[in-house]
Amino acid sequence: MRLMGAVHIPVLLPQVLEALQVRRGGRYLDATVGGAGHSRAILESGGRLLGLDADAQSLKTAGESLTGLGDFHLVHANFRNLEMVCHLHDFEPLDGVLFDLGLSSLLLEEAGRGFTFQKDEPLDMRYDTTQELTAAQLVNSSSARDLEDVLRKYGEERQARRIANEVLRRRPIHTTGELVRAVAAAVGDRRGRLNPATRTFLALRVATNRELENLSLALPQAVKLLKAGGRLVVISYHSLEDRLVKEFLRRESRACLCPPRTPVCICGHKPSLRLLTPRPVTSSAEEIAVNPRSRSARLRAAERV
Questions:
Q1: Pick from 30, 15, 134, 42: which is nearest to 82 by CA?
Q2: Residue of 168, 28, 26 whose CA lies nearest to 86
Q3: Same domain (yes/no): 122, 82
């Protein structure tokens, strides 16, 4: 998403609506409300909406912007608990589920959250500020090996060892500025298309919020809650989450999960999904020009069978 003044620009909006096929009176779960651009479009298309977000401030802002648009309810919750939330609110079965993954522009703009290296602020990075673990705690309590593993696994950072060692040498690190300077000292302050600290910030954000683990837990719940013909739509922004989504959708759309050389199927697996996007849907040049963040967006969709 992107915010331009008070106007929220949701990523791949026409493609999301086409994939969801919103029908009047249908039940739709927006698992990542954020700036509420997709939620707004669902309500304006006649759908009923249950919206989740781990960030309480985003929900408050979303609630204000959606007032008067239709039948909706917003819940402060992580999507790893989406099945429980739907049960509690008697909001099932679902006609559609949307995940717009990644970092909300609201969080980038909110002072003091530590998501961006453009500002020097506390190294927090929590979506849910009631959560105990912060990025600073992760940085300052991890061993060199564990920190290297985080940077390599979640940021695909090739200089992970050098950065981890430099961070340990400079600890304690409490602000984004201190972390940026540690990365620059480790790998050089070279400026290309990406800031040298980009992958480090991504890795720490993903690890602090357990993003991949939560997504792995949420996707099967979403499929379980969908009615036959219901749609699952996921927008991802980096290779790790896109790979996870792709592998999940492919697995759930296959009739057999046995190893290739197994002569007769013994797994008993039955497909729960029909793939709608053999290849990910990406943004047009026109959308990227208006909303640069959409450049990395990848949309995948499937239908419950």
A1: 30
A2: 28
A3: no
> Where residue 148 falls among pLDDT bands split at 50, 70, 90?
very high
Q: Which of 187, 209, 231 lies at the terminal end of a domain, its last residue? A: 209
Does 285 lie in the same domain as 265? yes
CB atoms within 10 A of CB 49: 27
Q: Are residues 40 and 170 in the same domain?
A: no
pLDDT at residue number 107: 77
Q: Return d(Cα 25, Cα 33) in angstroms, integer.
A: 19
Question: Is the domain of 163 the same as that of 193?
Answer: yes
- Residue 98 sits in the same domain as residue 157: no
- Report yes or no: 230 and 29 within 8 Å, Cβ to Cβ: no
> Is this prediction's pTM over 0.70?
yes
User: Quick one: three-class SS letters along 93-110?
Assistant: CEEEEEEECCCCHHHHHC
Pair 201, 216 in one domain: no
Give the integer Cα–Cα distance in Å for 167 and 271.
46
Q: Of 113-122, 126-135, 171-180, which range is least confident?
A: 113-122
